[in-house]
Amino acid sequence: MKLCVRILFCLLCGASAAAQYLNWDLQPAAGGFGDQRPDQPEVQEPADVLQEKQSFQEPLSWRFPDPPAEEEPQFPPNFELKAPSAANSISAVCGENSVRVEAKKDLLGIGKPVQAADVTLGGCPATGEDAEAQVLVFESELHGCGSQLLMSEDSFVYAFTLLYTPSPLGDSQIIRTRDVSVSIQCQYQRKHDVSSGLLRPTWTPFGIAKASEESLYFSFRLMTDDWQFARPSPQFLLGDMMKFEVSVKQFHHVPLRVTVDSCVATLVPNVDTVPRYTFLGNSGCMFDSQLTGSSSQFLPRSQDDKLQFELEAFRFQQDNSGVIYITCSLRATAAATAVDKTNKACSFLNGWKEASGSHQACTCCDTDCGTGSQSHLTGTDAQWEQETAVGPITVKERPLR
Q: Which residues are CB-contacts of 29 (< 8 A; sequence separation ≥ 6)?
């Protein structure tokens, strides 16, 4: 009996030692052997995870798969389109039996030359080219190059058409210009001169009447700074140079030269009012630079039927409107007439200088140059003069920073 007890006691001691060696956690069941040990840590359950539903302060403006709405574009303030100006790139001279047309290679006035093969006069290609002036030249008989003859009771009109059809750029199919069609007309009076040694006509022969009866067409206009176009705005600032161009239409006259005899500035379109400022007079002498020390001057003359001059902008004292009118007396003479004291364009630039280089004609500008003859073209009493005004021109004060 004692042997059995000893064996049981040894088994119990061995099991306890094995449990400690293997780190077994032996806990008595509820109501089992003894109470839980005081140094045993309590097992804690994991705390509940706090979760919150995500929400949006503002609702979405779009739903998938629709694209979001585009934002309104932002435009620059006070944006204005530039007003386009007509290109002055074609001129024509009608002769007795032919017409000569000159077209600038920059036909559209955009700074890019056109292809010569794309420009024709009624289907006829250019007959020449001025490489220095970048001009295409077309010459044709009045009955050639697809011209049309139109007749009225008083005149014959030969109508030509200058055509520009742009070719595609390179190997592409695009163009950056447009088709252009320009009508050119040569007009001739339907009159005949009949003479006979046995008859004494009571009318003036046609050779004289032609020049005196046909009107000349003068042009007086403001120009842009590059002299290529008529200036679209008559507004200037003090210190600006106002650029003026005077011209006369040739038609079938003998070659003509245009001059400016006098110019007057006034507040209203009436040269007989005060205040008034005569800045050009004495048959073509520009006094403004001599009187005020300005840079006003005639430009060197490049062709007889056109004359250009610059006038430094000004205002009349004690006038708040800044509005002025420029009225000039224009005159045409035969281009073969010599430049003289009554037929000149003189500027004061460290002395008097003439626009065509005939400076000797300006020696009378400080005295009296007299008045020109009234018979420059025909030997008759025909007057080839016209008084023309430009205005109102507005001259504003230049702002200071």
A: none
How far is CA 226 from each of CA 240, 243, 260, rounded to the nearest angstrom? Answer: 14, 9, 21
Radius of gyration of the CA atoms of the chain, in A: 48
Percentage, residues of the chain above pLDDT 90? 17
95-105 pLDDT tens trace: 888 899 998 88
Q: What pLDDT score does 272 carry?
A: 86
Lookup: tokens for 10: 């040894």
Per-residue buried b or exposed e for 332-351, using 16+ beta carbons within 10 Å of the residue's own CB:
bbbeebebebbbbbbbbeee
The confidence score (pLDDT) of residue 188 equals 81
Q: Give the residue carrying structure tokens 């779009």.
A: 62
The DSSP bridge partners found for residue 303 are 306
Helix (H) or strand (E) holding 196: none
Query: How many CB atoms sit inside 10 A of residue 16's CB?
Result: 12
| pLDDT value, residue 74 | 67
Residue 257: how many other CB atoms lie within 10 Å: 23
Beta bridge partners of 94: 99
The model's pLDDT over 355-388, given as tens digits with 9 standing for 90+, comes to 999 999 999 999 988 775 444 444 433 347 888 8
| Whole-number Å distance between alpha carbons of 32 and 35 | 8
Q: Which of 189, 122, 182, 121 is nearest to 151 (CA)?
A: 189
| Dihedral over alpha carbons 350, 352, 357, 358 (to 10 degrees) | -150
Bridge partner residues of 316 (DSSP):
none
- Under 8 Å between Cβ of 260 and 280: yes
Residue in this structure with the two tokens 């004291």, named with its chain if needed: 341
What's the one-letter identity of residue 164? Y
Identify the three-state secondary structure at position 385.
Answer: strand
